[in-house]
C-alpha cells in the first residue's frame, strides 16, 4: 500500500467532511437496523427508499467537497486512489493499493 501526505485541512474543512462521514455512517447503521424494527413491509420499504435517497445526496455532497478541496489545494488524486484523513491532526493522505 502506498500512502502520501497531500496536506492539512483547515478546521472548518475537517468538520465539514467529518459531518458528511458521520451522516453516511448513521444512514448505513439505520439501513442495517431496518429489518429488526417492528415496521410493516410497506413502512420498511418507504424508509429504505428514503435512506437510499439520503445516502445518494450525501455521496453527491461528499464528491463535491472532495472536488472543491482538491481544486482549492491543487491536489492530484488518481481514479484508483482514495483519501484518508487523520481527524486528530487534520492531515489528509492519498492511499493507493500497490499492484
The gross shape turns out to be elongated
Largest beta-sheet details:
3 strands, antiparallel
* Helix share bin: 55-70%
Tally the helices: what do you get? Answer: 2
Secondary structure elements and their pairing?
Elements: E1 2-8, H1 11-33, H2 41-73, E2 82-86, E3 91-96
Antiparallel strand pairs: 1-3, 2-3
Helix pairs in contact: 1-2
Protein name: CXXX repeat peptide modification system protein
Report a brief summary of the structure.
It is built from 2 helices and 3 strands. A hairpin with a 4-residue loop joins strand 2 and strand 3. Helix 1 runs antiparallel to helix 2.
Please name the defining characteristics of this protein.
alpha+beta; 2 helices; 3 strands; 99 residues; 3-stranded antiparallel beta sheet
Structural overview:
With 99 residues, the protein is an alpha+beta fold. The protein has a domain at 12-80. It is built from 2 helices and 3 strands. The protein has helices spanning 11-33, 41-73; strands at 2-8, 82-86, 91-96. It has a 3-stranded antiparallel β-sheet with strand order 1-3-2, with no helix packed on it. α1 (11-33) runs antiparallel to α2. The longest helix has 33 residues, at 41-73. The mean pLDDT is 92. This is CXXX repeat peptide modification system protein. It comes from Clostridium cibarium. InterPro entries: CXXX_rpt_assoc (IPR026413).
Amino acid at each position: 500500500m502506498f500512502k502520501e501526505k497531500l496536506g492539512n485541512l483547515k478546521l472548518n474543512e475537517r468538520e465539514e467532511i467529518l459531518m458528511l462521514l458521520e451522516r453516511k455512517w448513521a444512514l448505513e447503521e439505520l439501513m442495517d437496523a431496518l429489518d429488526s424494527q417492528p415496521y410493516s413491509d410497506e413502512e420498511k420499504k418507504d424508509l429504505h427508499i428514503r435512506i437510499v435517497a439520503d445516502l445518494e445526496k450525501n455521496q453527491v455532497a461528499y464528491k463535491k467537497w472532495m472536488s472543491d478541496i482538491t481544486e482549492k489545494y491543487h491536489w492530484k488524486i488518481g481514479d484508483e486512489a482514495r483519501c484518508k484523513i487523520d481527524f486528530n491532526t487534520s492531515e489528509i493522505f492519498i492511499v493507493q493499493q500497490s499492484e
